[in-house]
Amino acid sequence: MTNAILIREDAGAIATLTLNAPASLNALSDAMLAALKATLADLGQSPAIRAVILRGAGKAFCAGHDLKEMQAGRAAPDRGRAYFADLFARCAEVMQMIPALPQPVIAEVHGIATAAGCQLVASCDMAVAAEGTRFGVNGVNIGLFCSTPMVALTRNVPRKFAFEMLTTGAFIDAARAAEIGLVNRVVPADSLAAETRALAETVASKLTAAVRIGKRTFYDQIEMTRAAAYEHAGAVMVENMLWRDTEEGIAAFLEKRRPDWA
Question: In this structure, are 120 and 138 located in the same domain?
Fold first, then answer.
């Protein structure tokens, strides 16, 4: 495997991104955040890519922020205030780039996903976890409440479950993560890559424009009131219905044939 801290591999319409810092359990170091930001920006301009898989090299998905870097940042004259403000702003930017991407992003999770690593899973559109994976927002155990991971976590799981995770610092296993909605499914470790790839291929097989407009609308409407969401989603569906490829898709379904999408 290359020495690059983040590896992008394109195969057909699917791009796989591998966090490649196994010695630090793929911590979100300054270098890792910079690599993610640049790669996600490039993917946003890659029309041939229809789905993205995000995974980690070695024995873990991601252990969160690089605590050694954070301790070094504290040595700045202002006790690190400027460094920490910049760090959390950069991390928040990367996390928000994932739902903003036109392509669905699927986390392929194994080992552990802790603190900002759990935030990364929660920021992805879907997640597949290997049996035995553990999830946590454990900062409270070292006196640092996981306030920024909380933003993504509370948009994935019911508030009481999220609050328990945040205030106890306890891990939950993969089965529990699926139960509360943090991941979509749990699979045997030896079939994790194949199951995640199969999900990505299913998504990639759909009409690209429909998935892209659907993903954008999904995140837009979720922040609106119910009435505003219906108004917005209805307008999107009107436009979608008028597409030539949608007309063809409906005709193909009625005629029991495969659609001839341009």
Answer: yes
Q: Other CB atoms closer than 10 Å to residue 161's CB: what's the count?
A: 19
Judgement on whether residues 152 and 243 belong to the same structural domain of the protein: no
The tally of domains found in the chain comes to 2
Length of the chain in terms of residues written: 262
* 219 and 135 together in one domain: no
Q: Residue 254's Cα: distance from chain center in Å? A: 35
176: tokens are 């529990």
pLDDT in tens, the chain (262 residues): 578 999 999 999 999 999 999 999 999 999 999 999 999 999 999 999 999 999 999 999 999 999 999 888 887 777 788 899 999 999 999 999 999 999 999 999 999 999 999 999 999 999 999 999 999 999 999 999 999 999 999 999 999 999 999 999 999 999 999 999 999 999 999 999 999 999 999 999 999 999 999 999 999 999 999 999 999 999 999 999 999 999 999 999 999 999 998 6
Is residue 165, in this structure, part of any structural domain at all?
yes
If you search the block for the tokens 């998905």, which residue do you land on? 61
Residues 118 and 236 in one domain: no
Neighbours of 229 (CB within 10 A): 15
- CA–CA separation, 166 and 188 (whole Å): 27
The tokens for 71 are 């301790």
Q: Beta-carbon neighbour count of residue 258 at 10 Å?
A: 9
Which residue segment(s) compose the domain that 180 sits in? 6-204
Residue 260 lies in a domain: no
